[in-house]
């Protein structure tokens, strides 16, 4: 057992971990940040994406010990300071970029990573960037629209049902 200290969503946190503890386990079980999901255990689905020192990382592929001293941001850290939805989260709601919602935290986190690198991506660039994230419900159309809207692009509104 060893101790690990990192900054998660702007707060310094510490915990005792085994050397084999994955970052996703530390976040969910050690810190109670259950918005980061475990979907596949093989790093295929992207439901566990978080940001480590400003870069998107699949938290199921990283040991918690490797995040020692790092800045980690989870889906819980994407909201505005007043608790309202952040820009990308609001776009996902407005453009119905979700259905069951299981993949949504990872999709929001990978979208934030894309928009930090490319503030005005094309539809093709968005679809390409989402390649490591799987959604089994939506067909990705509204996810792409939500990311375009978050980037400030003109997007057709979602039709009312």
From TrEMBL:
Question: InterPro entries recorded for this chain?
Answer: 2Fe-2S-bd, 2Fe-2S-bd_dom_sf, 2Fe-2S_ferredoxin-like_sf, 2Fe-2S_ferredoxin-type, Beta-grasp_dom_sf, Diverse_Oxidoreductases
Q: Where are the transmembrane segments?
A: none
> What UniProt keywords apply to this chain's record, in alphabetical order?
2Fe-2S, Iron, Iron-sulfur, Metal-binding, Oxidoreductase
* SUPFAM superfamilies assigned: 2Fe-2S ferredoxin-like (SSF54292), CO dehydrogenase ISP C-domain like (SSF47741)
GO terms, molecular function: 2 iron, 2 sulfur cluster binding; metal ion binding; oxidoreductase activity
Residue ranges occupied by any 2Fe-2S ferredoxin-type domain in the UniProt entry: 2-78
What Gene3D superfamilies has UniProt attached to this entry? 3.10.20.30, [2Fe-2S]-binding domain (1.10.150.120)
Pfam assignment, any one: Fer2_2
The name this protein carries in UniProt is (2Fe-2S)-binding protein
Q: Which organism is it from?
A: Pontivivens ytuae
